[in-house]
Amino acid sequence: EKCGVLRPPKWVIADKVVDEFVDPKLQHNSKVRKAEEEKRNMLKDYGRGCIAREFESDYPEASVNRKAEVEMYMMAMSVYCDLENGRAYIPDYEWPDVAHWHRPTKIN
To answer: What backbone torsions phi and psi does residue 106 show, to the nearest 5 degrees?
Structure first.
């Protein structure tokens, strides 16, 4: 029995349209980028190839803002790695409590 909903159209996007939409220059030569990234010091190894590395910042190294930036980055990387390896999908997964995170009173 038919439900009355129209079947979606069957069509194929032409390669020319895809080529106009996708800009391969935006991939920035992923092998070079990955090699450069691997030169940076490791902050934490979350396992299964998921590594948080040092990153460039506009804040001075010992500043409160830099410390807050690194803490937030580490929380984000923890969640990212848990999503990648599947841990975040277990029913009793504990998400970071960002709402009660003790951050500096002012971030510029």
So the answer is: -140, 130
